[in-house]
């Protein structure tokens, strides 16, 4: 049995709300004395303490590529910073057995006054490499980053995209045994993101270990073998990446459904009272079946008014799949006071299994101001009879 290359035991990290560093030694000593006198109170926690991580434990074996997922504020970046030794945990410990490289938020790791060349050599020296070792990798780093013209320019003059290109190239090519990558790759253009993903695949094939934080669930699904789902600073699910993603999508859908039940409202003049999917309150549809959405509205005004209807479908991670509106199609509707039903019918919806957010809107006759705009009016859960890769299925026949 292989020894774990990363071990996290009861990692916790708390931050004190409103705490700002003191301006003098005297003030710091006064703060220290107050905290010393209140040791018992501090041990039990303060109402101003926020726990970014709480009792997080796991082991990662050599060669694993692990995706860390969770909503903003779940503790993903804090976890990587602790494992990268950027910050210390409040309690618990992390054991790292191998040479590490980190790609965290833009601006971390490089000296702004030094050139790209100097920063590459500095990073390698910090990792324990000799100048000859770094020099043997240098041309490969520059070629990968595609910034040959600017390699001798101070990095403070780099754009965020150039910075990320060089930072990833350095981190991936200086022979790390463990690579920590945060959402920072989203800064780069799509071609470079694909290039980075392929490089990470190559690293894992050669036995390297990667921890990857991302909100791009499709990338995580295709790249990672293992997933860890963090919620409110704690591990809620840990296992096969596909299983963890299914659990994560279901939890997002359940929360959105719960939130939307109390959000069916609009302005005082116009509000949603109910909506149904295929004539039922149940929000479940089988991929490639008829998709019919009916929405009941109440117009609380004395006179008739002209409106336009809109609907959009988004994935759990916020990707906008489709947006339709009667304004774009130049089909105004005159509503009289009272209750009305609007509907949209699609012959088929062919999406991967999962939960999808429905956004509804009612616009005025200019198509600008929204009487109603509900970002998560509901959630549709799609099941499938067949499997495909990507975001949509296409009618096809093999020959």
From TrEMBL:
Gene Ontology MF terms: ABC-type transporter activity; ATP binding; ATP hydrolysis activity
SUPFAM superfamilies for this protein: P-loop containing nucleoside triphosphate hydrolases (SSF52540)
Keyword annotations from UniProtKB, A to Z: ATP-binding, Nucleotide-binding, Transport
Domain of life: Bacteria
Organism whose genome encodes this protein: Rubellicoccus peritrichatus
Domain ABC transporter: 34-257
Family that this chain belongs to: Belongs to the ABC transporter superfamily.
Official protein name in the record: ABC transporter ATP-binding protein
Gene Ontology annotations for the cellular component aspect, listed alphabetically: membrane
Gene3D superfamilies on file: abc- transporter (atp binding component) like domain, P-loop containing nucleotide triphosphate hydrolases
């Amino acid at each position: 049995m292989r020894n774990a290359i990363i071990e996290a035991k009861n990692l916790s990290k708390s931050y004190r709300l409103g705490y700002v560093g003191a301006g003098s030694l005297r003030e710091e000593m006064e703060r220290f004395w107050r905290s010393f006198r209140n040791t018992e109170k501090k041990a039990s926690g303060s109402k101003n303490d926020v726990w970014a991580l709480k009792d997080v434990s796991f082991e990662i074996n050599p060669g694993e590529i692990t995706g860390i997922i969770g909503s903003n504020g779940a503790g993903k970046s804090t976890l990587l910073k602790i494992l990268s030794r950027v910050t210390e945990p409040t309690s618990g410990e992390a054991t790292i057995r191998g040479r590490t490289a980190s790609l965290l938020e833009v601006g971390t790791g490089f000296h702004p006054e030094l050139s790209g060349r100097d920063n590459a050599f500095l990073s390698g020296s910090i990792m324990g490499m000799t100048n000859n070792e770094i020099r043997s990798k240098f041309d490969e780093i520059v070629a990968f980053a595609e910034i040959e013209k600017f390699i001798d320019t101070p990095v403070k003059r780099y754009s965020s995209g150039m910075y990320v290109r060089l930072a990833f190239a350095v981190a991936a090519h200086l022979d790390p045994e463990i690579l920590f990558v945060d959402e920072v790759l989203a800064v780069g253009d799509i071609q470079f993101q694909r290039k980075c993903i392929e490089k990470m695949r190559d690293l894992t094939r050669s036995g390297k270990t990667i921890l990857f934080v991302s909100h791009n669930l499709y990338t995580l699904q295709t790249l990672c073998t293992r997933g860890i789902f963090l919620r409110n600073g704690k591990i809620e699910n840990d296992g096969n990446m596909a299983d963890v993603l299914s659990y994560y999508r279901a939890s997002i859908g359940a929360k959105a459904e719960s939130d939307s039940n109390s959000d069916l409202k609009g302005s005082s003049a116009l509000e949603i009272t109910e909506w149904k999917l295929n004539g039922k309150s149940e929000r479940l549809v089988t991929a490639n079946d008829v998709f019919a959405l009916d929405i009941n509205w109440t117009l609380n005004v004395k006179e008739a008014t002209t409106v336009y209807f809109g609907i959009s479908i988004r994935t759990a991670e916020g990707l906008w799949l489709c947006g339709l509106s009667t304004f774009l199609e130049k089909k105004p509707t005159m509503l009289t006071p009272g209750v009305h039903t609007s509907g949209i019918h699609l012959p088929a919806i062919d999406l991967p299994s999962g939960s999808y957010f429905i956004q509804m809107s009612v616009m005025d006759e200019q198509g600008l101001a929204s009487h109603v705009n509900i970002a998560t009016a509901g959630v549709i859960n799609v099941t499938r009879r067949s499997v495909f890769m990507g975001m949509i299925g296409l009618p096809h026949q093999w020959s």
